[in-house]
Design brief:
single chain, 215 residues, alpha+beta, 4-stranded antiparallel beta sheet, two-stranded antiparallel sheet, 8 helices, 15% strand, elongated
Amino acid sequence: MLEMLGSRQKDLLVLLLKNKVGLTADDIAEQLGISRNAVRQHLAALENERLLKRGETCATGGRPKQLYVLTDKGHECFPRHYSWFAELLVTTLVEQAGATGVSAQLATLGRKIGLQLAAQHAHALGPNVERSEVLASLMDELGYVARASRDTQGAPLIEADNCVFHALAIKHPEVCEFDLALMSAFTDRQIDHQECMAKNGNVCRFRLAPPKPTA
């Protein structure tokens, strides 16, 4: 995200990163060496992008002044090596339990998360609702750039243009077991992983099997 911002806006975010309690527009203008009007324009643009927000006001001996602080989204603009840590963690688990053991652990975790998500969104999962559509929407919100559709036989499909674990899944294909177990638990269907970007596919395509027969 930072590379998409102008140099002044980057500098402004860095100032707020260093000053956790927040800064006023006057503080920012002084430290960046630009006019207060220019600061106001940058603040408005960054607030519109939800990278910063209005915090508390501070007493100045006169009219209280507004403080500006980073949002969680603003903090996430700065490098955080989650992928490095995730790879280190999975590599260590594979060394300890083997690829098969890690696959089983990730599947167990995926089922647990899938059931939790289904419980949280129970209001949207009525008897006539296609769960793949609800799940695709949730996956899209999580960054998968996902959509629901149907194949030529009418079976539900979920296609994702972005694998959120891509680099990790290339080195450790067992990571895909997490997604498959989560999707199966959420939809109460078996999942056929038809295409995988970690295996040079254009998308990650998941086909849902027919509903399990009721007793």
